[in-house]
Design goal:
Elements lengths: L9 E26 L15 E11 L10 E3 L1 E3 L4 E7 L2 E24 L2 E6 L3 E11 L6 E17 L4 E27 L36
Antiparallel strand pairs: 1-10, 2-6, 3-9, 4-6, 5-6, 6-7, 6-8, 9-10
Length: about 230
């Protein structure tokens, strides 16, 4: 096959893409008490009499136990069938779908402080939190939900009984991006792309140190004057 440049060439292309049918930003709040029995026993009980300067924080994690990155997609399971509901929006009748789903998140609580005079940092094993939600979207049959967590604010309080951790109170505020999407094939006319030029670091030319022509070689007589 003869090779030729594609620069400036256009062609009718078919491209697989994900079409967004509807998109909202939704805030969700969770207040939940989690018993200490729900996670593994901690090496140091944060309620022990020897513990001082206790600090706590909580954060979402992925399936590997790593902190959940911003805008990460989370698993959701729809509950029941989608129900059509009619709304009047800007004077027009619009049919949306009522969707009920359960969002499953994993959360870790971190404790830090001093056990006697020894500083410590420890974390609970992942705690599963299920959040049921209902939303109205343009989500006809064939679309699926994509839920991403865009912002998280997590606070935790420790509950102790006789110097033993019994539970933690978790307050979780979420901002989430919720979309109804479907895979589509698009037809469009577009230019072909070409690879960019490789950046090559070139060696500079040798530099010559500056001279002192007034002193050397002087006026050509090497300092030997006549007479």
């Amino acid at each position: 096959m003869q090779s030729q440049s594609l620069q400036g060439a256009q062609e009718l292309l078919c491209i697989n893409a994900e079409k967004v049918y509807d998109w909202v930003i939704l805030q969700a709040s969770v207040n939940q008490t989690v018993l200490a029995a729900a996670f593994d026993v901690l090496p140091i009980d944060p309620c022990a009499a020897t513990v001082s300067g206790l600090s706590t924080r909580c954060f979402l994690v992925d399936e590997n136990g790593d902190p959940l990155p911003t805008n990460a997609e989370v698993d959701v399971v729809e509950v029941g069938e989608r129900e059509d509901r009619t709304f009047v929006i800007d004077g027009a009748l619009v049919t949306l779908q009522r969707i009920t789903f359960i969002k499953t998140l994993s959360l870790v609580v971190e404790f830090s402080g001093f056990d006697g005079t020894t500083p410590f940092v420890e974390q609970t094993s992942p705690i599963t939190i299920e959040i049921p939600e209902t939303i109205f979207l343009c989500a006809p049959t064939g679309t699926r939900l994509v839920v991403r967590i865009s912002d998280v604010d997590c606070n935790v309080a420790v509950n102790c009984t006789e110097e033993t951790l019994t539970s933690v109170d978790i307050v979780l505020n979420l901002c989430q991006s919720i979309q109804s999407v479907a895979d589509v094939t698009l037809e469009l006319v577009a230019d072909f792309c070409e690879p960019r030029d490789i950046l090559i670091e070139q060696c500079p030319n040798p530099t010559i140190p500056p001279q002192c022509p007034v002193l050397f070689p002087g006026n050509g007589d090497n300092g030997n004057g006549n007479g």
